[in-house]
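Sharing a chain and its predicted structure for anyone who wants a worked example. Both blocks are below, sequence first, tokens second.
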Amino acid sequence: QVQLVESGGGLVQAGGSLRLSCAASGRTSSNYAMGWFRQAPGKEREFVAAIAWSGDSTYYADSVKGRFTISRGNAKNTVYLQMNSLKPEDTAVYYCAARLAIVVRTSKDDYDYWGQGTQVTVSA
């Protein structure tokens, strides 16, 4: 079992930055691909970014490419999402997710574990 806990959300002005963190823990330590998803009220949960266990492969949604950066900590049990040049349309609950596989996927249906989410609100 894997537990995921997100942190770092909050209220920020448009054009500002936030860094989200996701701490993973569990007894069955293994290799996980990690991803970030977000969901706004009344909308489907959508892919934001993903990273391989090794940290050498990253993927981004077109809407955040060039503004967001996903990375892993040195211990590989923490994943970050650095969000720059934030826009009001980035407002959503952001979820950390883990997939018990090395190959990364961008569909929410391919992920096995989810955090509780952290709210990000960007004011115009």
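Comments welcome. The CA atoms of residues 98 and 113 lie 5 Å apart.
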